[in-house]
Design goal:
The protein is mainly β and 115 residues long. The protein has a six-stranded antiparallel barrel. β5 and β6 form a beta hairpin. It is globular and about 45 Å long. The protein starts with 10 loop residues before the first strand and ends with a strand.
């Protein structure tokens, strides 16, 4: 693993996959389910604010670096990250995924709406 320093993967994130999930009534609906819970390096970006439709919207970008595995190799923009990895964690929409080295890791650029 030449591309990643294990000591920097000091946070826990939950990767959620978009698809069909059962709701509380047993019906299949579109939603997110947990794909994996992994260790990550979290690099917060600079947030921004803008005025749209008479409301101020703020965003909080971040970069997440994780180890590559076959389970997360096909991450895409339909998936999302929850950080911290609890249900109360902020949901980050994945914008772009880059492979680090040859199956060493993944660099995930994501953005969340600031509350």
């Amino acid at each position: 693993m030449a591309g990643l320093d294990a000591g920097t993967l000091d946070r826990r994130i939950r990767i959620e996959r978009f698809g069909l999930v059962k709701n509380e009534y047993g019906d299949w609906v579109e939603g997110f389910s947990t794909l994996a819970s992994v260790s990550a390096q979290v690099i917060p970006g600079q947030g921004s604010e803008r005025l749209a439709d008479a409301q101020v919207t703020a965003t909080a970008p971040a970069v997440f670096v994780i180890r590559w595995s076959s389970r997360v190799a096909d991450l895409n923009a339909k998936d999302r990250i929850r950080y911290p990895s609890t249900d109360q964690g902020r949901a980050y929409d994945i914008q772009r995924v880059e492979e680090i080295g040859r199956r060493d890791g993944l660099r995930i650029m994501a953005v969340a709406s600031a509350d």
